[in-house]
Fold each of these.
Amino acid sequence: MPFQYSRRIYLADTDAAGVIYFAKGMEICHEAYEESLASSRINLKQIIEEKKIALPIVRGEIDFLRPLFCGDRITINLTTKLINSREFAVNYQIFHVANSDKILVKAKTNHVSIDPAKRIRIDLPTAILNWLEAYEIEN
Amino acid sequence: MPFQYSRRIYLADTDAAGVIYFAKGMEICHEAYEESLASSRINLKQIIEEKKIALPIVRGEIDFLRPLFCGDRITINLTTKLINSREFAVNYQIFHVANSDKILVKAKTNHVSIDPAKRIRIDLPTAILNWLEAYEIEN
Amino acid sequence: MPFQYSRRIYLADTDAAGVIYFAKGMEICHEAYEESLASSRINLKQIIEEKKIALPIVRGEIDFLRPLFCGDRITINLTTKLINSREFAVNYQIFHVANSDKILVKAKTNHVSIDPAKRIRIDLPTAILNWLEAYEIEN
Amino acid sequence: MPFQYSRRIYLADTDAAGVIYFAKGMEICHEAYEESLASSRINLKQIIEEKKIALPIVRGEIDFLRPLFCGDRITINLTTKLINSREFAVNYQIFHVANSDKILVKAKTNHVSIDPAKRIRIDLPTAILNWLEAYEIEN
């Protein structure tokens, strides 16, 4: 079951060409990721402060199928995929709130689990594994 | 009566010093402004496309009374003030969602009404005057 | 021959996890793209105002091989690739200024040439074809 | 003597209204502040990592006198002002590179010196006092 996150496209998300600035599309997807963590009671602030684990993005990709404009109300469908004990991927599909048939943007982020002080890979903690399972899609 | 807008502080809003990056505080206030316009059925996308009027910010100011951290859930109270037929101000107060007593951030933006092609000042349209009245505070 | 663009990593590019925020890596690459257009005397402001052509990004991808920190001085090597008469790609490699051996970040953007009013694909103009040729890499 | 910093206005700095997004004006000023620190051999990354001191902005203000467009080449003149042993201000004036007579944007940030763990005010270190002196303007 995907996690869903809705928000508006704001002026700050657009550029002088009149549509969404491409890198802002990735930022908006990351908001959905943070909301999905919060929905599983994973406290990002605490993770950052404790400095035991970090989940940096090692790869990001985004495809714009249709333009997004200032004021548009969008929904992001987020699904997860465990890759191995130290790595996972998050997939995002953006729709207009009123039309869940037409995908506007597709994106994906790949995250690794590291010790932030030593910057070496470590196993994903149980809380993250549970979150991954909650939003994983069979295919 | 103030307009209220709530959202979370996301990772993209913070910097390596661990708290909100100051200019992002202004962006978040501007989101509240856009939501308040939308709540009065003012269509920012249409305004931008028609190019009859623009409402650029000529002055912005922000005071950080207390730090905001990644993951914090905040509410912005927005109020308006008509300055003259071609200029208005918007005031913002940021609180934690759970604690409306303690102001964390105060901000203000001053906007002028212009013809975007000629970049000269023109009178505010009725829809904006009505929006200003809806959220104006007596004092 | 690649186009080269250097700049510092600023606080606004980082997040509370202490390193560059991933989507900012894409923004920095886009700055290199804009500087390379300017170096070929292509005026982006004029293109946007004339509204005859737009070159939106239809796909972006980025790989973080090593972290970037606040204050780091980086150089981006930009190369181009003509895909067909209406589409091109730009490749980016980010290094520390003092060390051009170790790639820190790789990124790529795919752009299409469109009529911005009708949002249909049109042929790339000569100025863009010349710019593509200037920074194209044989391989 | 002011510190000078030049850069271009990029697409990411603009919004769908066609000019610079107001909060980005503050970000660009902060880049000038970071460059001026670097010019005085103050290492922001080290300051952040050591966590002995932080210099958060408690107040920011910006005035837009004239619009900035995508592609514009600007110069920022930065000057400093010691307020007391725990507080300073930075003033910014933005010009077109080719025209130092006409101020386009004025901005100011107020910073306090704090212990980032306890978040209480502490005295400014000598390196910052020296940097303040280097760019302070008599008036």
Amino acid sequence: MTENSLHALLSDVKNGEIEIAHAIEQLKHLPFEDLGYAKIDHHREIRTGYPEVIFCPGKTIPQIRGIIESILVKKNNILASRASEEIYEAVKDLAPNIEYYPEARSIFIQQVEIRKSRAKVLVVSGGTSDIPVAEEAVVTAEKLGCTVERLYDVGVAGIHRLLANKHRIDEAQVVIAVAGMEGALASVVGGLSDKPVIAVPTSIGYGANFGGLAALLAMLNSCASGVGVVNIDNGFGAGFLASTIIRQIELNAK
Amino acid sequence: MTENSLHALLSDVKNGEIEIAHAIEQLKHLPFEDLGYAKIDHHREIRTGYPEVIFCPGKTIPQIRGIIESILVKKNNILASRASEEIYEAVKDLAPNIEYYPEARSIFIQQVEIRKSRAKVLVVSGGTSDIPVAEEAVVTAEKLGCTVERLYDVGVAGIHRLLANKHRIDEAQVVIAVAGMEGALASVVGGLSDKPVIAVPTSIGYGANFGGLAALLAMLNSCASGVGVVNIDNGFGAGFLASTIIRQIELNAK
Amino acid sequence: MTENSLHALLSDVKNGEIEIAHAIEQLKHLPFEDLGYAKIDHHREIRTGYPEVIFCPGKTIPQIRGIIESILVKKNNILASRASEEIYEAVKDLAPNIEYYPEARSIFIQQVEIRKSRAKVLVVSGGTSDIPVAEEAVVTAEKLGCTVERLYDVGVAGIHRLLANKHRIDEAQVVIAVAGMEGALASVVGGLSDKPVIAVPTSIGYGANFGGLAALLAMLNSCASGVGVVNIDNGFGAGFLASTIIRQIELNAK
Amino acid sequence: MTENSLHALLSDVKNGEIEIAHAIEQLKHLPFEDLGYAKIDHHREIRTGYPEVIFCPGKTIPQIRGIIESILVKKNNILASRASEEIYEAVKDLAPNIEYYPEARSIFIQQVEIRKSRAKVLVVSGGTSDIPVAEEAVVTAEKLGCTVERLYDVGVAGIHRLLANKHRIDEAQVVIAVAGMEGALASVVGGLSDKPVIAVPTSIGYGANFGGLAALLAMLNSCASGVGVVNIDNGFGAGFLASTIIRQIELNAK
Amino acid sequence: MTENSLHALLSDVKNGEIEIAHAIEQLKHLPFEDLGYAKIDHHREIRTGYPEVIFCPGKTIPQIRGIIESILVKKNNILASRASEEIYEAVKDLAPNIEYYPEARSIFIQQVEIRKSRAKVLVVSGGTSDIPVAEEAVVTAEKLGCTVERLYDVGVAGIHRLLANKHRIDEAQVVIAVAGMEGALASVVGGLSDKPVIAVPTSIGYGANFGGLAALLAMLNSCASGVGVVNIDNGFGAGFLASTIIRQIELNAK
Amino acid sequence: MTENSLHALLSDVKNGEIEIAHAIEQLKHLPFEDLGYAKIDHHREIRTGYPEVIFCPGKTIPQIRGIIESILVKKNNILASRASEEIYEAVKDLAPNIEYYPEARSIFIQQVEIRKSRAKVLVVSGGTSDIPVAEEAVVTAEKLGCTVERLYDVGVAGIHRLLANKHRIDEAQVVIAVAGMEGALASVVGGLSDKPVIAVPTSIGYGANFGGLAALLAMLNSCASGVGVVNIDNGFGAGFLASTIIRQIELNAK
Amino acid sequence: MTENSLHALLSDVKNGEIEIAHAIEQLKHLPFEDLGYAKIDHHREIRTGYPEVIFCPGKTIPQIRGIIESILVKKNNILASRASEEIYEAVKDLAPNIEYYPEARSIFIQQVEIRKSRAKVLVVSGGTSDIPVAEEAVVTAEKLGCTVERLYDVGVAGIHRLLANKHRIDEAQVVIAVAGMEGALASVVGGLSDKPVIAVPTSIGYGANFGGLAALLAMLNSCASGVGVVNIDNGFGAGFLASTIIRQIELNAK
Amino acid sequence: MTENSLHALLSDVKNGEIEIAHAIEQLKHLPFEDLGYAKIDHHREIRTGYPEVIFCPGKTIPQIRGIIESILVKKNNILASRASEEIYEAVKDLAPNIEYYPEARSIFIQQVEIRKSRAKVLVVSGGTSDIPVAEEAVVTAEKLGCTVERLYDVGVAGIHRLLANKHRIDEAQVVIAVAGMEGALASVVGGLSDKPVIAVPTSIGYGANFGGLAALLAMLNSCASGVGVVNIDNGFGAGFLASTIIRQIELNAK
């Protein structure tokens, strides 16, 4: 049922050409999804400033270009995740102010101003090798409006480095803990903090690490409460989840 | 939006107390789900004769009794799967014509006549130990309106038993192949037939069988095309899927 | 026992040179397989129009060329699945009307007309990245005689897109649901439909996706009944299974 | 180093009986952990109203009684999770106002008033069998100060039930999605909402469910962003994580 | 086609009432499976002395009794594997000379004399706990006609115990190596011998043993060549496989 | 203790320069391994005609050349398995009569005549893609003295192809069944034969095949008795195991 | 070759009744294993005070009684691990001074004095539920001669408890870290210490813990160097390994 | 709190400008971690001669260069593990005396003399292909001050090679057993020795080896006591753990 046919139906009601009971019956069976679609779309428009996200893997360059072009028209911000340098090179002509974050493998095009949150996200990471995933979390959260700080290379093999920065954990509202190997960082951070902790296992490691499975299982079994886990290497997901929490803090602070 | 409020809205349209454009806007945002709910419900009522299904595990006896009682009121048929003898004993007073199939662990209460299909389902099973799962498929498909035949104990270790019954495979429209151990039955049946084959791995086996994983993987990797797989021991699912195929055959035969 | 020796035996029976009982004994032990082979072969010939299928992986170019050439002689249609562009280039000289579907990685050579079914298959897919697997299902089903429609990019993260197209599900006789990541599409489609649903998990995803295992397990555990699952990325298998169902519908519609 | 010896050291500094440099050296090597311990203890005391939590499995009845008694002295609230009815019977004499939630398998003893949050947690669950895990989340979050609402039995096999309650998702600040089988609920809820979603896979299912692994992997691979996952059946962890988010909302709302 | 109808057909050929070509055509399509069945049956009868085997798990007592009774009539030997003491008690009235081997969990009823092989099977086992599986292999091989010797408790943690018995390995024609834990016995035995070695992993162990998976994988990856592996705890299978080898040795020795 | 020092000791005994008891004591503690080593070496020399085997993966070209050269000196036959074409090119100058089997990835250098067995090995394989593994088994068994026959492309999806060749199974003493995908071939062959069956799972397949795991588990769980399994793709191991069986048949036939 | 026959051979040498060269030949082939056995036995006797160990699972009460009785005769100490209370009750009459450690599930019978080491083992454990495994390590190490200290309930969720006891880690020569859940304790202890750390994963946990797999993988992937891992719940193995290290320290301290 | 501010605080105490109680309060909350950090640093300085270790994977060339340069300034020894030839080429200009061990993939720069231990480590390996991992263990242990010996190519398929070298095991204080395939070497070595055994599974193998999982599980389940396991291919970790044991032996030998 298109908007036109809905208009026709209501006209018929108005003109008495159709019984109200009969109209109700038709409306009941109307393909609600179209209306629902519009509704959600409308709803989305309210959230101005939120970027539309493109997950690049498995998409061809022409597909990615096409999606970017269609969002450019809508004047929304655009965040492309898991974007290789090659993808960036292939799309960078689409917008003069396109930004590329190579470590985070993220492309960003700003068309609307981002209002930064007062509440803060702290991204903590274990080793140097975990930094790309941590950076993906940082860039994602920032582009979704969060104020983000970094605390890197504080793995539990040298626990004093983490302890020496406990005040920084205390100052954040949400903590993202990024770690590979055995993923113990999430438990230690969770034990040191009563903030929501988002744990990101990374695939850094080898052998019985099984591509991040060791860290993933460790984080799911954390003896510290208050830890939510995202997929292996999913810095984007962690940044996104953090932004939903920060958003609730901001919305309810008004 | 309840039916009442919808009536009120349409009355306002009729009476000119609200602009059609405005009404459209309201309808667009109306919580479509309620209507959708009603619609599907209505739709379901058309399929008279179809039992409502209760999956028993994890439900308490009082919960199961409650659900049965509410369906009894609606005068629909009831099929309770994975129902232990204990459950049957605890609910058998609810309906005088309640039936219990101990091997299939299924309870059935008929309130509406089932029209049997002309198209046939053949349930083929490997060993004696697979029979309970096979029977679950049989009872499920029968109560969902299928004409069902059994061909049991024709495992591939004695391939001649299966070959000797090839004509029975040829006479069915849908074949369900139930097997544990290495699950090779599905491939052999699939190779002998150009009918849709629904493969049910069972947990019969031990050691590196890993609770039916061996048969499951084998069936998913069948070198015969045209095989769809359901969960381990899921005789119910196989019977149900068969019934949807039979139903399409019957519907389109008219 | 060749046809010649069988003829000799029967001549001996006719001429009384051998006792009937003795002939029976010989026939009992006759290598039935040769006859069986012929029989099935014969049976296969009836199904004119059905393509012979070549699964390319693990076969050398000369092997593939040889198989194609031998089928060309038989005047059957040929469908080569999992055929890389390189394979296509290496065999395209074999038939002037050879077709290549790059997304579906399928080669088709038509030698006999395909009669399209009235019954319809709807191929539903989750994300853009799932399209190659979906296309493999589409091409396979079409070349096996099905009328196929596509409904792509209706993943559950934006459930309204799927709901808005529920009527298309309603209009099909068989639905193929193709999805990677968490594979929830199969459950939602299964819940919206009482048609047979063939679920195809794809390997799209990363980390704890484990090459499609996440979607595979999800689909096998679908809370919606009536879902049969094929192997990860097995668009071919889904298309083939759909064609066996459609075939039964068509055969029984006469 | 106790507070006494620290006092003595400082007195010595004050009296000039020890060089400042020497005192620094001692302080540098002082077992900082004791102070750290005290500090955290002190810090914990500020969070009055927060229960101390006892994870019961693997603890003997005498151990559990001992821990409860020691907390009773401190006048803190006590939440014992995974507490069987047998444990409850064995400890219920310890406090007259002890409460037991059998579905949630939780014991609570209130000694300090809990101030309820304005921000709300909505606990959504798939099937009847998931309710015990959902209730564990509810009781945990409530005892940790959250206002909690329930939305049960809205699994994706009947998507309309969930859609019909979308407004309830919209009214909460945090959503907990509890589901077994294929765990698709988390993705659908995540797609319908821009709130933080905490996904709890349950072990409800059989066969290729592998004790909740299917739902766990599905939730980790959710195509909806903004989903954090806790361990299988970990209703407690979900409730706790929700409470840390709610707490940040409340703290920053002042 | 029954034997009767085959007789009728041949009579028709003899009497000239049917063309030979026509008869050939009919025979070509004759349901070979029935003849095949008979043939194989016949073939089986030649192997007199071989027991018919009943795998007990998943079969009910009445089913097992029924199968035993039907074999008793045929005057074949009967070997029931995985037979609990309870099963033995329930069937022991069926034959006066029934034997029960509790460690091997095997029932045997002799109706035909077993001719013992000259070639020998040596069953080697690692620890005391592996003995039940080893005994299952011993009893199976013996009842299938093998001369069997035992060499138990020679695990690799005390390699001298095995080395001190190398001559016993040298004197056998087939070696069965039964071991749990890490299953290294198979490799060491394989390295010491140029006989066929059948490796049986047992489920003895705990933790990362994963129900025998550790030993299974070790045996499949043996650095010693000439090792064939059977399922975890499958003493029966090892004994059976050994008997097929011994049988070939005996048959070809004549 | 070298042979020299042993000679000296015995001379001392002979000359009465050392007490027998004392000599016994020394001999008791003599590093038996050296003698043991010699003994085994000696034993090996008896088995003239047996090739020494080189497993190439993980070895450098110089290492492989060195090993070949040292065996050439000993005038033994040499079989190098898993030898890439590159390796062959790098070593082919070492012996004028070097042979390379590219499908089997095997190098062979004959220095001693191989006496062919009368007993036969039949290598059965499922699909065209399994041939390289099957060929590895063929070449290995042949070079170890077996008479080998091939029966390829008789996968269970077209069971008649296998049945039509049952007599070839009957004529062999040992059967090797090579199959990927779901590995059902081993069960069907095992069911058709009472010969020892060596099952070789191959890694042919994709998705839930998990690199041959599906076929491996299927073969370990074969419902046909008398099947021994080797590692995935381990054609060499199957050929070797077959040769140990054939060897026992030949040795005991004299 | 027994000692008697060796004596006879040497006598023959002495008397010139056999050539030395011939005697060497015989000795070369002498079943070295028997001598080797004696040798090792002798060697074992030197290690007086070391208990002989009985691993109880899978052994019957009579078997355990028999083994204990045979060791009692040898006057060695006896340590029975994984001994249930039931086993203890069934064997306690065998020795008046038998000791039972119920938490450690260990039986000990002292017949020879144990000399305690100066070097110390510290057993650190995460939670109350890990204590049984920790106690198994303690009892094992103590009975093998180690001086052992306990540091329990210092899991990483409250890292200060561990830090406050760092000096105790500093005072030990070997540290055993026992932890379930995510097993992070091993990494943190490893990071705080430059002593050998033996990590024992426990099966404490649920869901994605998979019976201790999470802790096991975490410990194997520890970002702290110097950590050796034993099997899940293997307190005995950790105690034993610690004792071998302590023993080397003691032996080399002299 | 820096040392300066601590000095200021103590001066204030001395001068009476701050109450002792107040100072205690400040010290209690002082960021102990900084002091703790210094303390550990100080402690580290004592261990002169110990190299600082760089784990190369996941680090960029500039990062590795930067880390090396900063350690060069501190005049510590440097050990870079998992360093490819490419990395070596890119950093070799940083120090004239840089050494590269290509098999061990290790870079070493000596700035301080290494005092070799009297106690010895023996590195035992199974096959030629395991040598790179074994060499990583050798180089690591040597650079950490251990005297190391090699015993290579003594896999259990030819057990005599190992037995012939038992005296070398007896002469070492710590044994590292490196093996791929089925990893049985660790059990055999553990059975032959009462020294601490560090087991290193390697990823050598294929098929059901699953990248070293087979050897890993075997080693964790070793029937020989006294075996500690490190991650797959983790020669570095084994060498490091060995050095911690050797170090305790040396320290306590004084």
